[in-house]
Amino acid sequence: MKILIASDLHGSAYYTKQILQRLIDENAEILLLLGDIYNHGPRNPLPHGYATMEVAELLNGVKDKLIVVKGNCDSAVDTMISEFDFIENVCLISGGKKVFFTHGHVYNKDKPPKTQYDAVVYGHFHTGFIERIGDTVFANAGSTSLPKNGTAHSYLILEDGTLTLKDIDGMVIKTENV
To answer: Do residues 9 and 145 touch, judged by C-beta distance below 8 A?
Structure first.
């Protein structure tokens, strides 16, 4: 199964449309969003194409392909415009490997979960990377709409136990076997 992983849309309809086009172009079966879907947050500028209701309409249109993890900027009121659930964390198996998905404000490479996973995938920091620490791969999808520290507008692909970080145009930045 091919999973497209994106994070930190922060209400940008412009980048939501781009990530939905990547979903089609990548022929991915699942779109896993790692939180901060609608609200830009108090420390972030408004992203290009800020239109939260349009983002909700776009995502509701692909609700059958969505898994959405709750971010620190997501709230209970967001569920009122969403035809999908926001969940705290999720663990999936890919290529026989346990992969843990979270937003990143609680668990990340500096504060890993207590349970051992083959990979921990998150967003929150708006900086895309893939890094192996010991036996665990840590990956950040970056931010689709508001990347930081000179990183690209990015997303991840998980397929058969392999993580690939790509820029919004689909160019490979890094690949790592989980």
So the answer is: yes
| E strand or H helix that includes residue 111 | none
CA dist 94 → 27, 120, 123 (Å)? 17, 12, 19
d(CA 37, CA 13): 10
Structure token digits, residue 45 = 């500028």
Of 152, 174, 178, which is closest to residue 165 (Cα–Cα)? 174
pLDDT along the chain (178 residues), means of 10: 97 98 98 96 88 97 98 93 97 96 98 97 98 98 96 98 97 97
Q: Which distant-in-sequence residues (6+ apart) come within 8 Å of 44 by Cβ? A: 10, 146
What angle do helix axes 52-60 and 13-26 make, rounded to 10 degrees? 20
Q: Which residues contact 50 (CB under 8 A, 6 or more apart)?
A: 10, 11, 12, 13, 40
Q: What is the pTM of this model?
A: 0.97
Cβ–Cβ under 8 Å, residues 70 and 88: yes
